[in-house]
Specification:
This protein is of the alpha+beta class and about 200 residues long. Helices cover about 50% and strands about 10% of the residues. It is built from eight helices and five strands. A five-stranded mixed beta sheet has the order 2-3-1-4-5. Strand 4, helix 3 and strand 5 form a beta-alpha-beta unit. Helix 1 crosses helix 2 and helix 4 runs antiparallel to helix 8. The longest helix has 16 residues. The protein starts with a strand and ends with a helix.
Length: about 200
């Protein structure tokens, strides 16, 4: 389960909602046929996501963060895996007790300047790694973010340069400045920890 929330979104410009809709479309496109995925808006501005794959929600959170523009309205992500089967009936009616726990976990980081990720009973090592990931996501420029998105899909710097009509040396500088290589190390650490391979 994953809940995406934009703190103080009622004060945000209208395009914030366009960003959320864009992320929702991208997450739907990303989904494979083997993995069941449900998304819906709950409590107004909260994007609620259920996945049938255990611990997959942390990777969805990372993907959503890579798409979210750095701004005064950070996207907050609270994720959790529960020992329960994916609801075969209408997922909108799924009311597992863990939903409340995930929302409470989200409340603890809503005003945090250093953490955009939360999870009930998160190990300290994961918490620190996600704190560093938060700093990376919050400090990229729009061009660095674009380069980061392409890099995370496995494109080479040469391919990114051709696609963005920039030189390879320029792309190389932005790859370095975006700290996307450190981000991939964090992703690999999470994949190993949660046994996602």
């Amino acid at each position: 389960m994953l809940i995406l929330d934009v703190s103080n979104s009622t004060k945000a410009p209208p395009e914030i909602y366009n960003h959320l809709s864009h992320i929702e479309r991208k997450l739907r496109d990303l989904n494979s046929n083997e993995n069941k995925l449900y998304m819906n808006y709950r409590l107004g501005e909260e994007l609620f996501i259920l996945s049938s794959q255990p611990h997959y929600s942390i990777l969805l959170a990372f993907y959503a963060k890579s798409l979210w523009p750095a701004s005064d309205f950070p996207l907050k992500c609270s994720f959790h895996t529960v020992d329960d089967s994916y609801p075969e009936y209408n997922p909108d009616r799924w009311d597992h007790s863990s939903i409340k726990v995930v929302r409470e976990s989200l409340q603890t980081i809503k005003k945090s300047k250093v953490q955009d990720f939360s999870s009930p009973d998160m190990p300290k090592g994961i918490e620190i790694a996600l704190m560093y990931a938060t700093d990376i996501f919050r400090t990229v420029t729009p061009l660095q973010q674009e380069v980061m998105q392409f890099y995370l899909t496995g494109m080479t710097q040469k391919e990114i340069a051709r696609l963005t009509k920039r030189s390879v040396s320029t792309i190389s500088k932005h790859v370095h400045a975006s700290r996307v290589k450190q981000l991939t190390e964090i992703i690999d650490y999470l994949i190993t920890h949660y046994e996602l391979e």
